[in-house]
């Protein structure tokens, strides 16, 4: 089986925006399912365990960067804290990206949106709208 | 069922008769996800802060607690179906596939049960 020719021939293809949304839909869905649900459960577990556990959770995923220490063994935990904040922001981006491409799926599922121009337009629009929504979400969190 | 090429092995068996149902449930749970996860994001925005007191007393209320339990069910079910598609696409050895899918079922069922238990504990006041 391994030596049989593959179709599509993986070396002969040209990037298009519809391929990007398709791949983004999978990457963001799987990313949220594997990483996001872990953090969701950590959050709920901390809430159910009381204020101290919640403070520990917040200290890890939403550390105050000004208070991080980079001396000795603390370097490692500080790096993890920086990464976790990036992961959390990344998950919000993944959420809005998957939401937009998921809504696009709904339109395609009812048989609409296959005209070349419309398909291309929404393939480009959906990840861009998602970035705008992510920015609006964080602006609302900070401002409201 | 022959034992020749991959296509030869499955020819004549018909479809697995679960794909369409799986596909449809992926859509039903996706609709649940849209409503419930937008509720959660809106809650994050509208709560005055995300301190322990604010969040735990909010989630302990009957309507937010119900919404959170529904969110856990919808999202975990959706994620389980979605990850199953991933496994089916990339894990081709029958034994490995069975093992990974078994693990996936345990992880998503266990995760959802833990999440729901946490919400119930918050709502019924068992937490410290
Ligand atoms: C001419 C080239 C390609 C063709 C004809 C093609 C075709 C397909 C088809 C028919 C599907 C299934 C769609 C569905 O289940 O709805 C698919 C899914 C997918 N393809 Fe491709 N593909 C191509 C190139 C690529 C490349 C180069 C990548 C990655 C680098 C890629 C990544 C994916 C992913 C991640 C999915 C799953 C998306 C989903 O289920 O929504 N594809 N592709
Ligand atoms: C916000 C609302 C959401 C909508 C509208 C939505 C929509 C969809 C749809 C329509 C599919 C099927 C794609 C296909 O058949 O190729 C899908 C796949 C998937 N979703 Fe969602 N989803 C949402 C939220 C989520 C969340 C919160 C998670 C994870 C925690 C998630 C994880 C996944 C995964 C892992 C897949 C499989 C991806 C693949 O096979 O390529 N989704 N989603």
From TrEMBL, chain A:
It comes from the Bacteria. SUPFAM superfamilies: Fumarate reductase respiratory complex transmembrane subunits. InterPro entries: SQR/QFR_C/D (IPR034804), Succ_DH_cyt_bsu_CS (IPR018495), Succ_DH_cytb556 (IPR014314), SuccDH_FuR_B_TM-su (IPR000701). It is a multi-pass membrane protein. Its main location: membrane. Heme binds at residue 98. The keyword Amino-acid biosynthesis does not apply. It is found in: Membrane. The chain crosses the membrane at residues 20-45, 57-76, 83-104, 124-143. Keywords: Heme, Iron, Membrane, Metal-binding, Transmembrane, Transmembrane helix. One of its GO terms (cellular component) is membrane. Gene3D superfamilies: Fumarate reductase/succinate dehydrogenase, transmembrane subunit. Its cofactor is heme. The heme is bound between the two transmembrane subunits. GO terms for molecular function: electron transfer activity; metal ion binding. One of its GO terms (biological process) is tricarboxylic acid cycle. Coiled coil: none annotated. It holds the Pfam family Sdh_cyt. CDD domains: SQR_TypeC_SdhC. Belongs to the cytochrome b560 family. Part of an enzyme complex containing four subunits: a flavoprotein, an iron-sulfur protein, plus two membrane-anchoring proteins, SdhC and SdhD. The complex can form homotrimers. PANTHER family: SUCCINATE DEHYDROGENASE CYTOCHROME B560 SUBUNIT, SUCCINATE DEHYDROGENASE CYTOCHROME B560 SUBUNIT, MITOCHONDRIAL. This is Succinate dehydrogenase cytochrome b556 subunit.
From TrEMBL, chain B:
Its cofactor is heme. SUPFAM superfamilies: Fumarate reductase respiratory complex transmembrane subunits. It holds the Pfam family Sdh_cyt. One of its GO terms (cellular component) is plasma membrane. Keywords: Cell inner membrane, Cell membrane, Electron transport, Heme, Iron, Membrane, Metal-binding, Transmembrane, Transmembrane helix, Transport, Tricarboxylic acid cycle. Pathway: Carbohydrate metabolism; tricarboxylic acid cycle. Its main location: membrane. InterPro entries: SQR/QFR_C/D, Succ_DH_anchor, SuccDH_FuR_B_TM-su. It is a multi-pass membrane protein. The chain crosses the membrane at residues 28-47, 59-79, 99-124. GO terms for biological process: cytochrome complex assembly; tricarboxylic acid cycle. It is found in: Cell inner membrane. One of its GO terms (molecular function) is metal ion binding. Part of an enzyme complex containing four subunits: a flavoprotein, an iron-sulfur protein, plus two membrane-anchoring proteins, SdhC and SdhD. Membrane-anchoring subunit of succinate dehydrogenase (SDH). This is Succinate dehydrogenase hydrophobic membrane anchor subunit.
């Amino acid at each position: 089986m391994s030596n049989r020719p593959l179709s599509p021939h993986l070396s002969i293809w040209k990037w298009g925006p519809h391929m990007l949304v398709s791949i983004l839909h999978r990457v963001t869905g799987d990313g949220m399912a594997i990483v996001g649900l872990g953090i969701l459960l950590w959050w709920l577990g901390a809430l159910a365990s009381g204020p101290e556990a919640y403070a520990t959770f917040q200290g890890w995923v939403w550390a105050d960067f000004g208070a991080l220490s980079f001396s000795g063994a603390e370097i490692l935990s500080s790096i993890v804290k920086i990464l976790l904040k990036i992961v959390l922001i990344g998950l919000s981006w993944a959420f809005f990206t998957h939401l937009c491409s998921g809504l696009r799926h709904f339109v395609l599922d009812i048989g609409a949106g296959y005209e070349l121009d419309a398909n291309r337009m929404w393939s480009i629009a959906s990840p861009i709208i998602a970035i705008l929504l992510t920015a609006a979400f964080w602006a609302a969190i900070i401002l409201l | 069922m022959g034992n020749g090429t991959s296509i030869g092995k499955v020819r004549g068996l018909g479809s697995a008769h679960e794909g369409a149902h799986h596909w449809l449930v992926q859509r039903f749970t996706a609709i649940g996800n849209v409503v419930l996860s937008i509720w959660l994001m809106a809650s994050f925005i509208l709560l005055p802060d995300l301190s322990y007191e604010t969040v735990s007393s909010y989630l302990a209320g009957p309507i937010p607690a119900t919404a959170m339990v529904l969110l856990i069910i919808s999202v975990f079910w959706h994620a389980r179906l979605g990850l199953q598609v991933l496994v089916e696409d990339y894990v081709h050895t029958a034994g490995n596939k069975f093992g990974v899918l078994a693990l996936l079922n345990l992880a998503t069922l266990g995760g959802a049960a833990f999440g729901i238990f946490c919400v119930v504990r918050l709502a019924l006041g068992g937490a410290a």
